[in-house]
Write a structure and sequence with these properties.
Blueprint lengths: L1 H6 L2 H6 L3 H4 L9 H17 L13 H14 L7 H11 L2 H7 L7
Helix pairs in contact: 5-6
Length: 109
């Protein structure tokens, strides 16, 4: 899962870098190529994540946080994300360990 998120969804990663998560969202719309990658992300997540599931594989694993980060690249910039997938990302983002990481002080850009 993690290797796929990092290798097959490059248009999202390029247009929605982690800067949009940790520094400043962007108002620039997704390109058609990034939109197609987002559709691929949503289809894969729907196939792997049962409706209402807390985690991908039963128990939490780091892939859950990685998938939530990829979704939050879209959610936090206002790009459309299916409700169930957005809810999953919000739940993952509230984990105390993730919040500790998110709230870390970062150097200015």
């Amino acid at each position: 899962m993690q290797a796929w998120l990092r290798s097959d969804l490059m248009p999202i990663r390029q247009e929605r870098s982690t800067e949009v998560v940790f520094y400043q969202p962007t108002a620039v719309p997704l390109s058609a190529e990034a939109g197609a990658s987002a559709d691929k992300l949503f289809a894969a997540a729907d196939a792997l994540l049962p409706a209402g599931a807390e985690n991908l594989f039963g128990d939490w694993c780091i892939a859950d946080t990685d998938l939530a980060l990829m979704r939050n690249r879209l959610v936090l910039t206002g790009d459309p994300v299916p409700d169930g997938l957005a809810a999953y990302a919000r739940r993952q983002w509230q984990r105390p360990s993730v919040q500790s990481w998110v709230q870390r002080e970062r150097p200015p850009l």
